[in-house]
Structure prediction request, 223 residues.
Amino acid sequence: MALVEIRGVTKAYFRGTQKIPVFEGVDMDIESGDFVALMGPSGSGKSTLLNILAGLDAPDEGTIHVEGQEITRLSSRQLADWRSRHIGFVFQFYNLLPVLTAYQNIELPLLLTSLSKKDRREHVMTALEVVALTDRAEHYPRQLSGGQQQRVGIARAIVSDPTILLADEPTGDLDAQSATEILTLLQRLNREFSKTILMVTHDAHAAEQAQAVMHLEKGVFTR
Prediction:
């Protein structure tokens, strides 16, 4: 059984009474340890698929199993608990809270757990070390470059040791050098720490850094 099994997933939105299909009957498998880049034109449903996989949105039809658990049957409360344990999300625009330091931003997901303050600190410092930002722990987002802010975002995503890392255009707001550093970091998380990663990107160069590239167009996956 694959780590992630997506079967027959269908999603549509309504604009007034007009039904706008996003994708229909999508199937996809992600194996443990995969680093998959997902490409496709704007509006093809790439980000929608990430949100569904993260339990932030629900499919109209179909099932999603992660580690054998069918997440499409979970209640909102069960999904929130499941997400906190299994999903790390990396956003294009970092989504850091400006009033919190890098350390505090990374610690946020752990505040939902039963970890002690000491254990939380160990987790945060380990994550900071992985992204090479231990010297920026007490800096606020405004004191960090875009690349450093994205590294804080990645540290926050991995601090709870999630089952899968979902990255939505993680280099989309970065200059070329910072983008390369972020992609190198994602490769390292995949190779050294065996993180399973699904990355949405418009950038063919970014996609080349993954082990496999899938294209989503008109609701159909191709490799």
